[in-house]
Amino acid sequence: MTIIILTEPKNPPRSGPPSAHYEGGRGNLLAEALLAAGHAPVMWWDHPEGPLLACTPSVVVLRSSATIQLDRAVALRDRGVPVINDPDVQRAAGDKRRQALVFAGAGVPHPRSADELLAAGAPPTTSVVRKPRRGSSGVGVELHDLGWAMRHGDEQVVVQEQVFGPELRVVVVLGRCVGWAMKVLREGEFRGNLAQGAAMHDAPCPSEAAEHVAVNAVAAMGLDYGGFDLIMTVDGPCVVEVNAAPTLWGPSRDSTEEILGAMVALLEGAAQPQ
After folding, report:
1. For the chain, what is the mean pLDDT?
2. Contact 221/210 with Cβ under 8 angstroms?
3. In 72-87, which positions are buried (b, 16+ CB within 10 angstroms) versus exposed (e)?
4. pLDDT for 146-160, tens place per residue?
5. Nearest-CA neighbor of 129 among 94, 161, 85?
6. In a 10 Å sphere around its CB, with 0-12 CB exposed, 13-18 middle and 19+ buried, how is residue 95 labelled?
7. β pairing state of 2-7 and 40-45
8. What domains appear along the chain, each with residue ranges and CATH number?
9. What letter would DSSP give residue 176?
């Protein structure tokens, strides 16, 4: 079957065409897995803009939250093509304030907001994390105290309590946790993002509660798949945030194959017959 992958170039900017049939060995893990499973991946990159390769896809996988790719996904979905994840859901999932509201409504443990801290009588010296509502890779994430954060309020940021404990990453695909990994932060760094120098190591699922929280979190957001950062606090697992287009490689070959195998099965199950 033909599968369109809406993605970002690996090393932007690109100088080639905006879309192409995938050629083996070019480094896209999901495309390689689909090719090995006998499917025909077609890459639609978000740069440069221009005419797209004509094809009749069985399913589309949205691997970028760039506006141009979300708009393309909407157009394809409106033509009746299955899109994973749904572009409206993925767009909404990128808003960290909305994440917090959804998790609160679904009973998913999540760091307390500044308002919740104030209501609980937290002192102004309480350590909080200030992050852009829409951002990724830890860019713009800062550590402050609650008093400073309240004096520098901004609608485009969220402020949450800093929580402590081992940090784990897991991908949830159709209600199943795959590719558990323990994060090791770079020395002197509080952010657990891989882009900020964190490393990953294979890890077992830390508890049934952690698995339950991760599965409930992806269900609450309405995602078919998503990546989650959890911190195992003294009070139990706490979801820090969700990524609707997570990294699909793990800390080892086995964990990467587990994640990719689940993704291929997800796309095969969602595809419409050609």
Report:
1. 93
2. no
3. bbbebbeeebbbbbbb
4. 999 999 988 999 999
5. 161
6. middle
7. parallel
8. 2-84 (3.40.50), 94-109+164-259 (3.30.470.20), 114-161 (no CATH)
9. E
